[in-house]
């Protein structure tokens, strides 16, 4: 089964720090998703990308198709950014759903 | 705009009981799916539907049943609850299937089986 690997598994940082969360996958994909899950809460889609870079506010997502790697960056981190960040990919040639999920990165931003 | 609505939010069952987790979306999405989330694991697909009247199994379908009589609703039924089904369940929808469109998730149903 094709895997999605995220690193780090856990990350604690101070408010204001620049945060990077990594996602790697094993074979070709048609789309990669970054999702956010707050404690006890639902899951929100942050980005869907298939190439290049996307930016929304303080969040930036990049993908390198050749290296099979994506990063999620948070600039000027804030305690409200504390959440689990999940990477999911749509493998090329996958089934009707086709999304394979990573285990998530648990981020804590301390004031 | 409600998006994807799941009910109940929490539920405790005894082994052997049956129940239905409700999921409704108001975005006219064709594609809906159910996932379970367990500690230390990524979300895993239980069942999915590509439109009204069409359903199929995902990665972990055993012990669950679904139907899709309308575009809006996609209930998940536990036939005879087992402790291994203790999990957080998420319903999701998107405009088309295949994972090439943004996914919209409900807030989840936290289910405990005693």
Question: Can you put this structure into words, describing what you see?
Answer:
The complex is a heterodimer of chains A (111) and B (114). Helices cover 0% and strands 60% of the residues of chain A. By secondary structure, chain A is mainly beta. In chain A, the strands form 2 sheets. In chain A, strands 2, 4, 5, 9, 10 and 11 form a 6-stranded mixed sheet that branches. Chain A is globular and about 45 Å long. The mean pLDDT of chain A is 92. Chain B is mainly beta and 114 residues long. Helices cover 0% and strands 48% of the residues of chain B. Chain B contains no helices and 11 strands. Chain B has strands spanning 4-7, 10-13, 19-25, 31-37, 44-51, 54-57, 64-66, 76-78, 87-94, 104-105, 109-113. In chain B, a hairpin with a 6-residue loop joins strand 4 (31-37) and strand 5 (44-51). Chain B is globular. The model of chain B has no long low-confidence stretch (mean pLDDT 93).
What's the quick description here?
The complex is a heterodimer of chains A (111) and B (114). By secondary structure, chain A is an all-beta fold.
Structural topology:
The complex is a heterodimer of chains A (111) and B (114).
Chain A: E1 4-7, E2 10-14, E3 19-25, E4 29-37, E5 43-49, E6 52-56, E7 59-64, E8 69-74, E9 83-91, E10 99-101, E11 105-110
Chain B: E1 4-7, E2 10-13, E3 19-25, E4 31-37, E5 44-51, E6 54-57, E7 64-66, E8 76-78, E9 87-94, E10 104-105, E11 109-113
Parallel strand pairs in B: 2-11
Antiparallel strand pairs in B: 1-3, 3-8, 4-5, 4-9, 5-6, 7-8, 9-10, 9-11
Categorize the overall geometry of chain A: globular
Estimate the helix proportion of chain A, in percent: under 10%
**Main sheet specs of chain A:** 6 strands, mixed
Strand composition percent of chain A: over 45%
Q: What is the H/E order of chain A? A: EEEEEEEEEEE
- Runs of chain B in which pLDDT lies below 50 for 5 or more consecutive residues are none
Biggest interchain interface, per-side counts: A-B, 26 and 25 residues
Helix/strand-derived category of chain B reads mainly beta
Provide the gyration radius of chain A in Å.
14 Å
- Elements of chain B, N to C (H/E): EEEEEEEEEEE
Distance between the termini of chain A: 40 Å
């Amino acid at each position: 089964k094709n895997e999605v690997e995220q690193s780090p598994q856990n990350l604690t940082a101070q408010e204001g720090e620049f945060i990077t969360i990594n996602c790697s996958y094993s074979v070709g994909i048609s789309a990669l998703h970054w999702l956010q899950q707050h404690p006890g809460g639902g899951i929100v889609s942050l980005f869907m990308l298939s190439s290049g870079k996307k930016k929304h506010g303080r969040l930036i997502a990049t993908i390198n198709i050749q290296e099979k790697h994506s990063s999620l960056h948070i600039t000027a981190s804030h305690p409200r950014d504390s959440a689990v960040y999940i990477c999911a990919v749509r493998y090329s040639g996958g089934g009707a759903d086709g999304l394979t999920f990573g285990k998530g990165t648990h981020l804590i931003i301390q004031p | 705009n409600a998006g994807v609505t799941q009910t109940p939010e929490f539920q405790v069952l005894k082994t052997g009981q049956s129940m239905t987790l409700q999921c409704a979306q108001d975005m006219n999405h064709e594609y809906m799916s159910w996932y379970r989330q367990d500690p230390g694991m990524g979300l895993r697909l239980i069942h999915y539907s590509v439109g009204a009247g069409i359903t199929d199994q995902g990665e972990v379908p055993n012990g669950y049943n679904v139907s899709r009589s309308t575009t809006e609703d996609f209930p998940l039924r536990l036939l005879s609850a087992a402790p291994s089904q203790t999990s957080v369940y998420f319903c999701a929808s998107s405009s088309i299937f295949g994972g090439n469109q943004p996914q919209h998730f409900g807030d989840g149903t936290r289910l405990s089986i005693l």
